Amino acid sequence: MLNIMKAEYLKTKRTMSMLLIPVFPVIVLGLAFVLTMNMTNAYSESVWNWWYTLLLPGMLAIISYLSVVREKKTKYYNLMTLSTGRKKLMLGKILFMAVIMLVANTIVFAGATIGGKVLTTCVPTAGAVAAVIALTVVSMWEIPLFLFLSERFGMIVELIACLVITVAGILFAPTSKWIFLVSAIPMRVACPLLHIMPNGLRLEAGNPLMDASVILPGILISLVWFVIGTVLYLNWFDKREVK
Question: What is the DSSP letter of 180?
Answer without folding.
Answer: G
